[in-house]
Amino acid sequence: MNPLTGLVLAGSGAVACLAWAHWAVWLAVLAASVGAAAAGRVLGKAVAAALVVVVPFALWALAIHGLFFPEGHTVLASFGPARVTAEGLEYAGGIVLRTAALVVVMLAFSTWVEIPVLRAALVRRGVPAQLGYVLATALGLASTVAERLERIREAQEARGLVVRKSLGGRFVAARLQVVPLVLQLVDEAGERAAALEARGQTLPGRRTSYVDEPDSRGQRVLRWVLAMGSLAVVLAVVVSAVARVLGGGR
Prior knowledge:
This protein is mostly helical. The protein has a domain at 1-112. The chain is built from nine helices and two strands; from the N terminus they run αααββαααααα. The protein has helices at residues 3-19, 23-39, 43-67, 86-112, 115-124, 129-143, 145-158, 167-198, 217-249; strands at 75-79, 82-85. A two-stranded antiparallel sheet has the order 1-2.
């Protein structure tokens, strides 16, 4: 499969999750993403990276909306000012499901795609070389976040860091791991920028690539259909929202 086909498929799934607020759409996108990751033999990497994002978000959503949802009327349990309501749990579950679908669909693509092939495909279609490199590199970094965090954690534990099992202990450990990760990514970006400059990436002119990309007429048609369909959905949602705002204003 051409990497641009995978990119359009992932983008279409993200558009569907954002355009239609229905659990069936989110479950369909999530199931399709998991199936695609399994077919591409990257399911383990995609799930591990997704858990890093989804689990903390799910805990936050359940704590805020599950316990302090103002529109909740069906009280399941109460703990002082906190009330567990069915409406709050339903709202939090919807947010978590939509976020999980968005995260998994993008990580399934980013862990599957071959960065050199994606960059070559972007440059061949007129995307500036530096922009294509930045986009491809960002996807590559996203696919290795879980691995990088694991290596940082192992290095810190070797130096004496003790990760306590309590929620507070895990948050402290997460903060100690995220700071080195961000510094590492910033330092890497500087090194890559210097390497690009030294290799003449800022010079004008046409470029050739030794990397070949698989493609077919069917894939090209599919990309155009999905791209136009996603654009139509976005325009329909925006126009509808603007019409409601203007109608309410009058």
